[in-house]
Design goal:
352 residues; alpha+beta; Elongation Factor Tu (Ef-tu), domain 3; Threonyl-tRNA Synthetase, Chain A, domain 2; 3 domains; six-stranded antiparallel β-barrel; 41% helix; 20% strand; binds zinc ion
């Protein structure tokens, strides 16, 4: 279990830790504690250094946080240093998103369904039929007023059974990490936040895009060569919610030419829901290309992917009949006991 120092101190940029495990010849490092944030909840991972080695990626593996390095390191103790500019930008964006989501939820009941923070722009998907331009302008103005009020932003831990007044009910059981913007918002969130709304800076809504899920659904069901281009574009440029919709509707026999682009997409995709959906789609497509991609993921050959995606690939292989079963048979003897037993179970399903 990695102690996540950013849970209690988002401003910690330098820390010392003990190396407790390493993989990939010392390029994948596990620490007893870390200030590095792993990609999750729409917030991208931190970068920085462990000793004098660059941290390229940080992966949430559930209990543990993996640090992927540019080259192997040795030694038992390391000093960690975050790329603070990048991290603080993510903190500003994340608290800014909570603030904007709250002012959209409050008078209009516009619920935020997913978020994504990028280097140039951040997106926020609302579950609404329509949004008037006055409502957008009003929300932006109100959000900026609250920025100038410099309200405190605090983090606390509460039990899921007794935590009340959350903007969005949490599905988690047990202790919840709750981020509060004073007199405005309480949200269960594992992300890193600024300490007061003034640190967010000005909030600008650059664009409102209406994406009809039904269009995305219809396009991905058609699957003829002429819709491959718009589908590929949607998978690159749309919000995570739309990407999941498109992938969820890709049908096997008609989507063959998509297996390779999907496999490539998986390596650059950062949103966990979209990653999972890519692996499911590859299982439904089931062509030799798709199987090859699933095998690489299940074998752990795609380095930056967390174990839950290896398990997802195994699940997808169970749906591909005999060729899937052949791959699962090899995986059942995997050195990792969890992978081995998941493959054995999936093999039974595949044979049934
Ligand atoms: Zn959050």
């Amino acid at each position: 279990m990695t102690e996540r120092l950013y849970y209690t101190d988002s401003y910690l940029a330098d820390f010392e830790a003990r190396v407790v495990d390493r993989a990939d010849d010392g390029r994948r490092i596990y620490l007893d504690r870390t200030a590095f944030y792993p990609t999750s909840g729409g917030q991208p991972h931190d970068t920085g250094r462990l000793g004098d080695t660059d941290v390229l990626d940080v992966v949430d593996e559930g209990e543990r946080v993996a640090h992927l390095l540019s080259r192997p390191i040795s030694g038992e103790r390391v000093a960690g240093r975050l790329n603070w500019e990048r991290r603080f930008d993510h903190m500003q964006q994340h608290t800014g998103q909570h603030l904007l989501s709250a002012v959209l939820a409050e008078p209009h009941h516009f619920a935020t369904v997913s978020v994504h923070f990028g280097p140039e722009t951040s997106t926020l998907d609302l579950d609404v039929g329509a949004i008037a331009s006055e409502q957008v302008v009003g929300a932006e103005a109100r959000a900026n007023t609250i920025v100038t009020e410099n309200r405190p932003v605090t983090v606390g831990f509460e039990d899921s059974g007794t935590a009340t007044g959350l903007r969005k009910p949490s599905e988690r059981e047990g202790p919840l990490r709750i981020v509060t913007i004073a007199d405005l918002d309480r949200s269960a969130c594992g992300g890193t936040h600024v300490r007061a709304t003034g640190e967010i800076g000005a909030i600008l809504i650059r664009k409102v895009e209406r994406v009809r899920k039904s269009v995305a659904t219809a396009l991905s069901r058609i699957g003829t060569p002429d819709v491959l281009e718009p589908i590929s574009r949607m998978l690159k440029d749309s919000s995570p919610a739309i990407r999941v919709t498109v992938l969820g509707n890709l049908e096997g026999n008609k989507s063959r030419p998509l297996a390779m682009p999907l496999a490539a997409l998986l390596e650059s995709e950062e949103h966990p829901d979209v990653q999972r959906e890519i692996l499911r789609a590859l299982g439904r497509i089931g062509t030799p290309d798709a199987l090859l991609a699933l095998r690489r993921v299940a074998n752990g050959e795609v380095r930056r992917l967390p174990k839950r995606l290896r398990l997802q690939a195994i699940e997808s292989l169970a749906g591909v009949g005999t060729p899937g079963a052949q791959i699962l048979r090899t995986l059942a003897g995997d050195a990792d006991a969890e992978i081995g037993s998941a493959a054995a179970k999936a093999l039974q399903e595949a044979m049934a």
